[in-house]
Structures
1.
Amino acid sequence: MAQLRQGILIAIEGIDGSGKSTLARGLSEQLAQLNISTVLTREPGGSPLGKHLRTLLQHPEININPTAEFLLFAADRAQHFTQIIIPALNNKQLVISDRLSDSSLVYQGFGKGVDQQMIRSVNQWAMQGIKPDLTIYLHIDAQTAMERIHARGKALTAFEKEPIEFTQKLIDGFSSLYSPSPKRQAAYPVNMRQENHADPAVVAEKSTMAESSALSEGRAQAMEELRRKEESLLHKNRKDVMMIDGAQSQDKILADVSHKVHAWIKENHYL
Ligand SMILES: Nc1ncnc2c1ncn2[C@@H]1O[C@H](COP(=O)(O)OP(=O)(O)OP(=O)(O)O)[C@@H](O)[C@H]1O
Ligand SMILES: [Mg+2]
């Protein structure tokens, strides 16, 4: 398997039945064919603690207040990042997560009215400031998704039992997060890509160092430390989005996404 230059975090987002789990598995297999190994995980439920929380959260008979619900997702997330995601990123692996933080923003925020600024802050805290490098959003209409969930033939979770109006709210929430609005267009000039912004403090510190004369050993070490600090900041600030039409056939989605993700990995010099 090829060795990546740094860890990569990819999130797959979308409403229930949009095809996230199917795509996550397929993408992992396709990347393995291209010699890139992946760590496949999910929220909720990526860690041993998370498996218990997932059962609680999806239980159709337990009435959970929206804030409590978000905090349970956040607890799952904190454990998931500490135990699974961060160690894998430190190990230069490619992590694919079936749902991540934006699902909370959309389900508990847009869907159930929990304060969105609070969700963003707690998410950031639980994720130790790390953001996904790439988010793949499967966009699909409520009716098609619901038909798929029913055809799947499994018992419905609490979220899958919500009325279609709730699902429509979620679709609107995801769209407002990922659609290139005029304001966002400026931030995502090419292919919805937000360029990395170097932290001004790091830039200032670096230029002061570059100006000073001979590069003593101590200084070289400090430069190396700054380079690493800058690299980790790049990781934290980066956010690319791929919007995919989830109503297409499974094969078409998989071929399209695999091709795009492979190109994105190469374009960002991760290989
Ligand atoms: N592109 C597709 N076309 C038709 N059916 C699909 C497609 N992708 C997935 N399915 C089927 O639709 C159902 C839902 O897919 P999947 O479980 O991957 O969705 P999900 O987004 O993970 O849903 P959930 O959020 O409920 O876990 C499954 O039975 C799956 O086999
Ligand atoms: Mg799923």
2.
Amino acid sequence: MPARSNCSDDDMSTQPKPGIYVPGGLQSAMSEARRRALFLDRDGVINVNHGYVHTIEQTEWVPGIFELCATARDAGYALVVVTNQAGIARGYYSESEFLDYTRWMHEEFAVRGAVILATIYCPHHPEAGLGALRIECGCRKPASGMFTVASDLFNLALGDSMMVGDKESDLLAASGAGVLRGFLVDSSKPEPLARVIEHLGRAANSTMERGT
Ligand SMILES: [Mg+2]
Ligand SMILES: [Zn+2]
């Protein structure tokens, strides 16, 4: 870790925090019951990674993503997006532009019966960030901060949760937080999510069998 004179103490309150978008507000996403989660990286898992996607026009859905999310919901998984957004750090788009886009994305999922609980995002970058966003944070994957924040806020059982990512850093971040299982996908291949959908479909069936 490089020494940084401006953050040499361990005061958690001064640590940079990830951003959080919850469609109905934080209160609506609280849960008494502990839930398992399916964590999703965004670029390369939800939308094809065309580089710093932040508009409707740039959005090309990864084949199978809505089926994956609906199957996960049926199997009792809360859906949480965890995404590095260096585009905010670099000034390519503002945080409010990102949030407008994220709101639209959540609505697209909701109308297809795959409600996403929250999007957690890291707006920092250690070298390319502008101003205060140029910082070594604990949330940019492969660090695990976004998973622990989500777990604390939404009462998630990380040891019973899964991650879908398109980079090793996604899976490292998840396993570092204690997430049970990671799937690495390649959205340039046909049916990139089929293996994950099949796995979750089996989970949904076994849940129903236990319930009868
Ligand atoms: Mg990605
Ligand atoms: Zn961060």
